[in-house]
Every structure is written in C-alpha cells, then in structure tokens.
Design a protein that fits this description.
171 residues, alpha/beta, Glutaredoxin, 5-stranded mixed beta sheet, 7 helices
Length: 171
Amino acid sequence: MKKIVVSFFLFFVTCQLHAQEVKWLSFEEAIALNKKNPKPILIDIYTDWCGYCKKMDMYTYSNKIISKYINENFYAIKLNGEEKKNITFNDHTFKFHKEGRRGYHELSAALLNGKLSYPTTIFLSGNVELLDRIPGYLDSKIMEKILVYFSESLYKTTNWSEFNKTFKSNL
C-alpha cells in the first residue's frame, strides 16, 4: 500500500513539474519591466483563504495554452488582497490596513475601487491605465477570450458581444 501511495505522489509531483506555469511578478517588478518594454498587465487579486482563487490557480492559470498566452503577452502580477508589505507606486506607498479578523491592502482596495471581491482579474494597458476589472472565477474558455481581447487591443475597435460571436478558441 505504501508503494502505491508513494508512486501516486511521485507521479503527481512529476506532472506538476512539467505543467506550464504563469511567470508571476511582483507589482514593482512588472511596473519596472513595463517602463522598459510596455505591454498589457494582468493582475490576479486573490487571498489565501479564497476557494475560487485556488480553483483558478489549479484549473485556469495552470492550463498550458492560458499560461503560455499570458507569459507571451502580459506582465502577470499575483497580488494578495491582504498583502502585509508596503508597495510603492506613482510616488505613493500603499499599506496593509488591519480590519476585523483580517484586513486589506490599500493597493488592492484602490484597484478594486473599494469593492473587495476575490478573485478579481484586473487588466491594465501598457500605459498602466485601467482597462477592466473582472470579478469572480474565470474558467479557461472565458479567460482565453478575455486575454485575446485585451492583449490585441480589440477593445478599442470591437465591442465585447461582437468579439464574443466571432472568437475562435485554441483550447
């Protein structure tokens, strides 16, 4: 029985090592890279206790096509909505605020316009301007559409419903 458990564990670990992963950056790293080579920014705002956040990591962000597309077309930031360390952006230092049993980070609250909902996926342009906030769990199929829509700047010329009708998936 022990051999079966150990074999299963080794198989699982090996599969995880071969999976494509999103190259997550800190907020500061992404902003610095963006200054040198602008491209859209994806921010995954999550918390450690959020079940749907973990589900997105497990099923959406671990999808080979999704992770490859993100790595090639975005600077990807994983931002804990309850981050404890200070983050400086545009000469302002954002801090953690203890509130109740937990608390929130000011940068997350600012990006979420005060509506602390996890997970939320935020898209910024290469000029670091807010393009959209998308709250809730996004499966691979909808995430693929959203990634293409923002990375190819289709939001500038095509409304979402028209884009959605003509989109061809690679999944």
